[in-house]
UniProtKB/TrEMBL annotation:
<keyword id="KW-0862">Zinc</keyword>
<keyword id="KW-0143">Chaperone</keyword>
<dbReference type="GO" id="GO:0051082">
    <property type="term" value="F:unfolded protein binding"/>
</dbReference>
<dbReference type="Pfam" id="PF01430">
    <property type="entry name" value="HSP33"/>
</dbReference>
<dbReference type="InterPro" id="IPR016153">
    <property type="entry name" value="Heat_shock_Hsp33_N"/>
</dbReference>
<dbReference type="GO" id="GO:0042026">
    <property type="term" value="P:protein refolding"/>
</dbReference>
<keyword id="KW-1015">Disulfide bond</keyword>
<dbReference type="InterPro" id="IPR000397">
    <property type="entry name" value="Heat_shock_Hsp33"/>
</dbReference>
<keyword id="KW-0676">Redox-active center</keyword>
<dbReference type="GO" id="GO:0005737">
    <property type="term" value="C:cytoplasm"/>
</dbReference>
<keyword id="KW-0963">Cytoplasm</keyword>
<dbReference type="InterPro" id="IPR016154">
    <property type="entry name" value="Heat_shock_Hsp33_C"/>
</dbReference>
<dbReference type="GO" id="GO:0044183">
    <property type="term" value="F:protein folding chaperone"/>
</dbReference>
<protein>
    <submittedName>
        <fullName>Hsp33 family molecular chaperone HslO</fullName>
    </submittedName>
</protein>
């Protein structure tokens, strides 16, 4: 089953709805970054939230969702595009904590303070806003973000369900946002009703995003679907450009001491091997040609 975001419009109440299934993306991120269970679970929620927020944007837009905290996790970074490509990283991939009961279940991993920031890349123009974490529950803190920073009536609901021994059994979510003339009472009613429907659907094993929409809002028809996948923009060429920025002296030191190197992408964990010939080419481009054997 492919992960996806599905969108619809509730015409009677002028509310737009996005639902996401991000289970496979979360599992791939866990594998790529070798995430422990708590790190993987919290990052899974961030990936689902990033996909939902990206679904609100126009074409050629990227969303960066960053969480910073004073707990062991320290934070994570999610990069999500309108096209469904996602990537990101966790600052501390090794967090294993015993969950508390109730509202503050993630406090042992997140700590007592922090913030959420959102950066929008609008085709080269950047807009950033941030709010402090108030509850240490991502969906509640995102609702606080929308209320304070964007002043748009919005409700975000996230559900991560364990299935057997699989901590990332089903990762799903829903976002409901009012249009300028949207019915706020209808929005509040959905915010009260949908979490239990979302939980029940995930507990039953999940499925496709269209099935999630049908379970949450029977009779509503999807108007758009975007497949969601873990996809990075890194490449060996970009890795070489990063090395070139260090300057000829540092590259020369690598040549003299190691002969080759590797650059590992922070976002996806891909290791780009840089050979001696690659380093010679970089030095030549920086005006320091080498005697090649």
């Amino acid at each position: 089953m492919a992960d996806a975001v599905v969108r619809t419009l509730l015409n009677e109440s002028n509310l737009k709805v996005s639902v996401v299934v991000a289970t496979q993306v979360a599992r791939e991120a866990r594998t790529r970054h070798a995430l422990a269970s708590a790190s993987a679970s919290l990052f899974a929620q961030g990936l689902a939230a990033g996909a939902l927020m990206a679904s609100l944007q126009k074409e050629e837009t990227r969303i960066n969702l960053q969480l910073e905290c004073d707990g062991p996790l320290r934070g994570y970074f999610v990069d999500a595009s309108v096209s469904g490509a996602m990537r990101g990283y966790v600052k501390n991939p090794n967090v294993e904590v015993e969950l508390a009961e109730g509202q503050f279940q993630w406090r042992a991993a997140l700590g007592n303070s922090g913030f959420i920031s959102v950066l929008r890349d609008m085709g080269g123009e950047y807009y950033r806003s941030a709010v402090e974490l108030t509850t240490m529950q991502l969906q509640d803190d995102l609702n606080h973000y929308f209320r304070v920073s964007e002043q748009i009536a919005t409700r975000v609901m996230l559900q991560l369900t364990h299935l057997g021994d699989e901590n990332l059994g089903v990762m799903a979510g829903v976002l409901v946002q009012a249009l300028p003339d949207g019915d706020l009472k209808a929005l509040d009613a959905l915010a009260a009703a949908l979490p239990e429907r979302l939980r029940a659907w995930c507990d039953a094993g999940g499925g496709e995003a269209e099935a999630l929409l049908a379970a949450l809002l029977p009779g509503e028809v999807p108007i758009a679907r975007t497949d969601v996948r873990f996809e990075c923009t890194c490449s060996k060429e970009r890795a070489l450009n990063t090395l070139a920025a260090f300057g000829a002296d540092e590259i020369q030191e690598i040549v003299d001491t190691m002969g080759s190197t590797a650059v590992t992408c922070q976002f996806c964990g891909t290791k780009h091997e840089i050979t001696l010939v690659d380093l010679w080419d970089l030095l030549e481009g920086l005006g320091r040609p080498q005697l090649r054997n």
